[in-house]
User: What shape does this take?
Amino acid sequence: FNLIMGKEECKTMLDALNKVTACYRHLVIALGSTSDSQNLREELKKTRKKAQELAVANRTKLTSLLKDKTISKEDRAEYERLWVLFSSCMELLEVDMKRSLEIAQDFPLKVPTRHLIQTGMTGSTTTVAARAMSVQNMKYEADSNIDTADLRDLQAEITQVSQMMEEMEMKVQVMKVQVAPWAVEAKQEAGAELKSNMSVGNSSVGSREAGFASICAVIGFFVIVIVALVLGYLVVNM
Amino acid sequence: MKAHFGPAQSGAYSLSRLTSKHKATSKRAEKVVLEMQDPATGVKLQPQRLVITTIPHAITGEDIVQICLFYSEARSFGSMLVALGYIYPIQDHKRLVVKPDASLYRFQTPYFWPTQQWPVEDTDYAIYLAKRNIRKKGILELHEQEQYNRLHKWMNHKWDFIVMQAKEQYRAAKERKKPDRVVFDCQERAYWVVHRPPVRTHTGMFPSLQKTFMIFTQQSIMRPRVKSSVSIGALVKYCATYKGHDPFLSKCLPSNPWLTDDVTYWALNMPNVEIPTKMRVERWTFSFGELLSDPRGRDDFRLFLKKEFSGENLAFWEGCEDLKWGTAATMKEKAEQIYKTFLARGAPRWINIDGKTMEITVKGLKHPHRYVLDAAQTHIYMLMKKVSKHVSSDSQLEQNARNRRPSLSPIIIRQQEQEQKAKMAASAPVDITQLCRFTTPVPHLAVYSGITDPPSANASPSLPFLAHTPACPSPISVALDSTSASERRAEASEGESEGNPEARASAGGNVSKSRVALSLRRLLKRGCTPSSMFASLSPKCNSAAGTSSRIQPITPDEPSQAPPRRIGNFFQIKVDIPPECRIYPIESEDEDEENRAISRERLGTKEIICPWESLTPQNGTG
Assistant: This one.
């Protein structure tokens, strides 16, 4: 039971990390453009921190699961798949963090003549950040010099992430866990993204739950139709 | 400018040049784009009106052209900006050109700017295609579909992640307001048009960069690969061979000039010194390339070839080198000169290369370039290499016999060198050697069984194997006639095992002419493909490949089967073999394998167990 809980927990955390990574990318894309602002910098900072927390949590969880030698072969394969998901997420995050550092350095905000690229994007990114942080509204409380002050933090965090990724590689080897990323078989086939997933979790295979959900919908539909027929009958008979 | 390397190298070279040029242009472009943002002096912006929404910050093509004139020369700069991806067209998004009319463009966001340090990842492209798949509900364009399928195959292990990330990115994008969403879609699409163009994208600039890159990567895939065990073995062999010759790793005689300030070492090793040092001569035995690259060795080889009436080969090779490394201005004349002297029919120093190579070379000479003679040069090089292998020198054998530790005093070296000088003055300066440990030829095989049909399928099939016909007066027949008892005695006693100086001395005392004959005879007895020798030595005697020979072969033709390949046995052959065993050159080349196989079979009933005969055939590259 513990193991199943562990797996589910892992998947949820991985989904959260995935979401934050996606949102972070959207935010970084807005950097340097006319959507850029103090708020964006703060959003980036907060999202980043959230991503890092999730990363650490995921890593601990996954390594503890993988370390367990008593797990079955299918479980092991599943954990390896999750590990590949996790490391891919981290790769994306690392690249985006480095890029955000670069662009933020090139486009400081607190300069007398700031030339942000007029890309056509003018709206704010607050909803994206809210999605990342899983909150309703974002609160902004940063200093006005966040665009420069944050950069040092960012650099430190980038180093942290790189180190963590290296450690991950090493750990996986030290534990003699042969996670061969290329040997992992994807559960999703081509075009899987087209399937609408009613379920929240993406890292689990959605098809089963989608089937279940559609069965529910069909049953609901029939129930409503029957109720309507009954009512109609009653009305006619009145 | 296209450098004349081989195709893969030229691809890489031009790629690196183009990318560095690219880098400089990118930097410039970025500067200009930033300056264009200035509301006062920058480019004029106008809103783009769509059905419901209005999106600001659009530029017309005309304005781009105008502003580019302001910043640099003409329209090409604007086209460059679009081709690189700093500005993208909104309407005709597949054609990356600047149209000087009212068609609209927009600036690209810094994240999507082309930068050297952030290579364009396939993962990102896969995510983009998955997103597009969602948006278009499964209906992708043809090239997108192809790419999608390809990526699905190659990145299958990551596909779960790609789908996950695509869905999340799609949802995150929906969080933004409609105009921003439209802009983002356009931006992303423009980015991928620049970096993953559908094949028929019309770009104003840099088509060659992509093409060069494609050629380069295709050729990298086709490049042959070597197992690391094999390459490490080669490295070890190289180090072991050259270790003694490195003045910093082992003692150099008389002394290392850097340490003792005594320049004798350099004086002794001048490029054109009269007497080469022992170490230098030993170095020549390492490989044919060493011999050729040392000017003194090359001189010796030249003299040897002159004696064998095949000096034109080396002259041709030198001419080719001259062409390769010479100035571009002189190339055409040089190529013509070489053709007239060596290649044309009836040329004064006609070289003997096979028909196909000649054809290719002559064809290439119509448009001469640096490497037009490469094929012929390689051919001749291989020929000369074969020649060099089968000639041994007596002076070298003497040296083999002696103590070769570097603690020899300079006096002994001087003595040796003087002897060598005397010998060389007396004889053909045949310093080309190989390390022969077993030097006793089998006496009774003085009957020249070496002249048989060449096993044509083996070794280099491109070389013409022409049998020697009796009509041709070859210097070897002259040598054969001068069979003398003294020679045979010398052969019999010579070099049984190391440490037999008397035999050496008597061998050393031989007359020069017979020494040449001796060495050539040894060559023949080894049953090497004699016709190749003849072909190189007697280029005038090009007769049709026939089976006539003056002397009856002892054994019938050899079946052309691949002899057992022994790679890297160089250091494994022990000295403890019976003295009747033949001279086997210790080279790890395959051409000698066939010779050994042939000679072994000739021994027939002799039942000599040579150490390597128990080896099983290996296949391939191991």
User: Anything to note?
Assistant: The longest helix of chain A spans residues 73-106. Chain A touches chain B through 60 residues (CB under 8 Å). Helices of chain A lie at 2-30, 38-67, 73-106, 126-133, 146-174, 206-237. The two ends of chain A are 57 Å apart (CA to CA).
